[in-house]
Every structure is written in C-alpha cells, then in structure tokens.
Amino acid sequence: MIDFGFDKIALIGAVALIVIGPERLPKVARTVGHLMGKAQRYVADVKAEVNRSIELEELKKMKTEFEDAARNVEQTVSNEIHQTTGELNQAWDELGHQAQSYGAGDALAEPPLGYKPPKKNWRVKRAAVPQWYRQRAGVRAHAQSGAARVARFRPPKPR
C-alpha cells in the first residue's frame, strides 16, 4: 500500500486548502473519508471471498481424498470377507466329507423344518435374581402408594 508520512499528508492538506478553499474543505474531506471507507470494505469483502473459495477448494480436495480412502478400505474389507467366506465354505465342505466318510453325516445336517427353539420364560429369569440383591438394589416387590412410603420412612415421634 502507499506509504504516507506526516510530511506528505501535511503537503496534501495545504494544497487542498489552497485549491478547494476553507469553506468546502470539510465537506470534501468527509466525502473522501466515506469513499475511502467504502473502498476498504470492498477490498475486505473481496479478500474474504477469495479466502472462502480457497478454503472451499481445499475442503473439496480433502473430501475426495477421504472418499477415495473409504472406497479403498471398503474394497479391501469386501475382498477379505469374500476370501474368508470361500475358505470357510471350503473347510465346511471338507468337514462334511470327512463326517460322511466316518458315517456321522447326520450330525452336520440341518435341523428338521418343524423344530422351534424353546422360548425363554421371563419369570424364571427374574426369579434367578437373589432376594437379598433385589432388596439392596431397591427393586420393589410390591406396589406402595406415595403416602405409605412417606409413613414408612418418617422418623418416629419422640415421647
């Protein structure tokens, strides 16, 4: 930017005073100040816009890099899964052939279509929790009204 020292500003002010005159100099100075402020705001806006566009381009580059890395990881994982699945199927088939050669082919067979696993009884599961643990943990065995709870925990009256 242009470097203005005190001596240059004083010289410009003296010339402006002679050329413009003392009556109109304050109005002209005010107008020039407003124009300089607008110019500075415009330059600041342009700088901010350029910075935003540069940051946006950097973010787009980072986004593409992350997407490429994610795609590579996805491909690697899917390849490993396919390879492992193939190895497991091969091992399962070999195990089935070994079991058939030993006469235990029924052990690896699928369960019959009518088979249903037993349902779990939630009451049995709940009864498996010891009573002392339920009392200590504050599990309520019976419903109690608010007034009954207050009466239960009210300190005894002095006699």
From TrEMBL:
GO terms for cellular component: TAT protein transport complex. It holds the Pfam family TatA_B_E. It comes from the Bacteria. One of its GO terms (biological process) is protein transport by the Tat complex. It is a single-pass membrane protein. Keywords: Cell inner membrane, Cell membrane, Membrane, Protein transport, Translocation, Transmembrane, Transmembrane helix, Transport. Residues 138-159 are annotated as: Disordered. Its main location: membrane. It is found in: Cell membrane; Membrane. GO terms for molecular function: protein transmembrane transporter activity. InterPro entries: TatA/B/E, TatB. Belongs to the TatB family. Part of the twin-arginine translocation (Tat) system that transports large folded proteins containing a characteristic twin-arginine motif in their signal peptide across membranes. Together with TatC, TatB is part of a receptor directly interacting with Tat signal peptides. TatB may form an oligomeric binding site that transiently accommodates folded Tat precursor proteins before their translocation. The Tat system comprises two distinct complexes: a TatABC complex, containing multiple copies of TatA, TatB and TatC subunits, and a separate TatA complex, containing only TatA subunits. Substrates initially bind to the TatABC complex, which probably triggers association of the separate TatA complex to form the active translocon. This is Sec-independent protein translocase protein TatB. The lineage of its organism: Bacteria, Pseudomonadati, Pseudomonadota, Betaproteobacteria, Burkholderiales.
